[in-house]
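On to my pick:
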Amino acid sequence: MISLQTCSDREEWDDFVLENNGHPLQLWGWGATKELHGWRAERLLAYDLDGEPVGAAQVLLRHLPGPFKNLAYIPRGPVLSVERAEEVLDALSNHVRSQFGAVVLTIEPDWSELPHISSGWRKSSNTILIPNTLILDLNKSEEELLAPMSKKTRQYIRKSGGEESVEIRQVKSREELEKCMQVYHQTAERAKFALHDDQYYYDVFENLGDASPVFAAYK
């Protein structure tokens, strides 16, 4: 049997997420960011009968219009071992319905394998987050990394990377991030993709810090 308890300690929460290979979107700072933009964050730790923590879920809640109550959403979570997935998920679904008045619970877990879950869950054809993640093996040589890219892309990389005056480092201040946002807006306009308002990215930068690093090339 699984019991759920609210966690109000940021350090305890982040330690559990990181120690169990959880995704950055399950860190405290992501919930803090979403709370600035219309969501409410609830952080739940799951315990077994021996009182040992076996899972964690940062649940984002948003009030629905009209007669409905709340939408519950767990981005890149819950954080758990696949062996306990079914019982933890069932406990979570019961909890968000009874305690938060949720009419639906959507999860987009960061799992490498799909565990057995109860029949009450349904796979959705729609995703909120980007459905695919590119993992780049940095043990490869430079030539191996560049090989799949187009000729023009390789030329651009070699040209910019070969300049001795170019320094690539982590962005550390709001002022530096503002300059990055100028480039981001230009890129979005050229590639025709939508952006949040600038404050959203500043809040992510402030609340997640090194858990969501930004790197820039300086000349």
Residues 18 and 45 are 14 Å apart (CA to CA). Residues 164-218 form one domain. The chain has a mean pLDDT of 93.
